UniProtKB/TrEMBL annotation:
InterPro entries linked: Acyl_CoA_acyltransferase, Gcn5-rel_NAT, GNAT_YJDJ
Lineage, opening ranks: Eukaryota, Metazoa, Cnidaria, Anthozoa, Hexacorallia
Source domain of life: Eukaryota
Protein name: Protein NATD1
Residue ranges occupied by any N-acetyltransferase domain in the UniProt entry: 7-97
Sequence similarity: Belongs to the NATD1 family.
Gene3D superfamilies to which the protein is assigned, alphabetical: 3.40.630.30
PANTHER family membership: PROTEIN NATD1
Amino acid sequence: MSKANVDHDVGANAFVIHLGKDGKEKALLEYVKEGDVLNLWHTEVPVNHRRQGLGAHLAKAALDHAVEKNYQVKPTCTYIQKYLKDNPLAEYTERVIPID
């Protein structure tokens, strides 16, 4: 997995990796904050940047943020569900709440 700089865009409720020389293209993980719960609902990586581990960088950044802020996590995005299954770290899995 290559190194990526993940920005937390609080105003957009997203974790973002700016791609390319101009930074206009981006990979992102969008969430909705529901009290002390982060509903991680959408992860998107442009086709030409897939299979580089960018989704994993986004997932890790969002989950680390949840740990830091003591939030619970609702993983409605299927990619986040897979990431948690592949990376069952206690500090992440103990924060997961069931999906309605």
